[in-house]
Amino acid sequence: MNAPVVAKTKPFYKELKKGRSYLWCSCGQSKRQPFCDYSHVGTAFEPVTYVGQYDGEEVLFCGCKQTGTGPFCDGAHNNILGGYRDDDPNSPENLLIPLVTEMDAARKMLDGGCYVFSTTDADYQSEGNLRHTVVISEAQGAQYQSQFYAELESGLSPVMSFGDRHVVLLISEGSGQVVIGGQSFDVNATDGIYVRPGESFVIQSADAALKTFISACPAAPEMMFTEQPSSTFEADWPQRVISVDPEKRHSMAARFFQMLVDKTIGSTVATQFIGHIPFSKAEPHRHLYEESLIVLTGKGCFWTDSLKTNVKAGDVIFLPRKVRHSFEATDEHGMDVAGVIYPGDNPSINY
Ligand code: FES
């Protein structure tokens, strides 16, 4: 036996006890999945021990046995046969799910605190030449991240500073510069930008308006401006702007994504990615992280268990942890999206 047996094409969700040892089956032959029953004896496989860190620790033990980060799922199951399935939006059960069209303060509410926020229907505030609105905050049910949308008509923005939070920006339209602690970076649409705790920043538009989504993690209640820019720039982490590069794509069945801001450039708290969803509907699934998803191009439908709603470019989906959902691209060209997940560093892990 050279290759492990696929015990299940999805991970196993478990809640652990502090100090208890869990022996994960790596060969896939155990009848006590995801745990070892010594079926591996006589093979080259060995179980992997994990000790629970605290009561109620939530983990996803790999079921497909293809993970590179055993005992935990790393998303490898998405690329095995049956690991990432499509769903039929016109199945009898799906046709019974009603479409939400009504808005509550620019939000269309779905199940479990999930909502779709429309930047075109939002109320805005102004700070100098920066028009901004709250997309995600604790007041709207978020536990970990906040997100703001801002439009800079021209010139230099006021100085923004989110204290000791990690800040992740996505330029959705326009080009210009972001200046972080006195260091200037050229930015263009679809670039991801990382601002470290304690640093302040300004944005500057080249000519036309520059539009950006600003995520602060942990959550900030509102946009934060300062009269006194900080000169702090953590030079140990010099790379702050990450652009789309097709060479850096990861496949997830027919979908693909690229990491923008992640731990490789020092962001250990929030993770940002950009991806493409082809004309299809994914099978419903969950994540252990809280997620925001910005629709950059195309249109689609976002589904939770008992409700669904249409989405278009400029909308943001807020998805709490563990809410079952699926994303459908309804346009033949598919959709481009950008997401921020927290806590977590791998957007391909689902169960
Ligand atoms: S279940 Fe094996 S990598 Fe996800």
Automatic annotation (TrEMBL):
Q: Which domain of life is it from?
A: Bacteria
Q: Which residues form the Iron-binding zinc finger CDGSH type domain?
A: 9-46, 47-83
The alphabetized UniProt keywords are: 2Fe-2S, Iron, Iron-sulfur, Metal-binding
> Lineage from the top down?
Bacteria, Pseudomonadati, Pseudomonadota, Alphaproteobacteria, Emcibacterales
The answer on whether this UniProt entry bears the keyword Hydrolase reads: no
Q: Does the keyword Iron apply?
A: yes
Which parts pass through the membrane? none
Provide the Gene Ontology terms for cellular component. cytoplasm
The protein's name in its UniProt record: CDGSH iron-sulfur domain-containing protein
The molecular function terms of the Gene Ontology recorded here are: 2 iron, 2 sulfur cluster binding; metal ion binding
Organism of derivation: Govanella unica
